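Contributing new records

If you add data, match the layout below exactly. Sequence lines come first and carry their own label; structure lines follow with theirs. Keep one chain per record. Anything else will be rejected by the validation script.
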Amino acid sequence: MAVEQSQTMPRTTDEEEPRGPSEFQLAMHELKRRPPAILGLIIITIVIIMALFPWVFSPLDPVDQDLARYTKPPGFTDTAGRVYHLGTDQQGRDILSRIIWGSQISLIVGITAVLISGVIGITVGIVAGYFGGWVDTIISRIIDTALAVPFILLAISMVAILGPSLRNIILVIALRTWIVYARVVRGEVLSLKENEFVIGAKAAGCSTIRILFFYLFPNVISTTIVIATLYLGRMIIIESALSFLGLGVPPPTPTWGGMLADGRSFLDTAWWISLFPGIVLMFTVLSVNLLGDWLRDVLDPKMKRIAD
């Protein structure tokens, strides 16, 4: 009878214990607790959709010029019945259409520059932190030298040599921002390489390449994602600043920074030329920063909040 009772008793093993929430569930829970981050996610989603399909949302041709529409105010309707919801610029071009198409340039430059600088910076940082010695010294001096060169001077010099273009703008930004990733990753790898899992991998005969990219890289990826998110907004600002100075993508391609530059001479008579691109630029960068703060709290163990 004792045997039969023991067979019918429920087992209390670790497998039957309720599992805690996953990382994704924790991230979504944190997102629900942060309305600003939700607002940022909505805004950046709208901007991305507009950048992917600008011809769907653009009411008019962004480069169509007509001096008969010279600096018309928002809500202007021409003789053909076309409505210019945000007005026109000094060349009669539709502001709304140019803003929509300009989002494509800003996101292309921002995302591409983040990816390129991230790949370079992560690779250099892992190598410097793992090998140390003269390798770390050389890389550290290169980073110090890059930090000593003013960014605007570097941008002007490279654009003057290579010429203004989308490719060159991405190259200029990426070659200046990789050092951020390299310094952070180097510091993390310096501590990670002393951990038991790295020492065990060396004792097991794993190759250096395997240790770098299969043991160290997964442990620094969360930090680099946070940096990339926070720096995406900065990349967009840098591209707009270069376009504002005439060092960005050449006209007639619409860019937010170029539109701000076009309207600076008309602030007292046609304020809408600069105001609306500036508002879109501000909210886009703000939404990216809000999402970056959320990702930092979710992915960075040092910044995670303790559950109540």
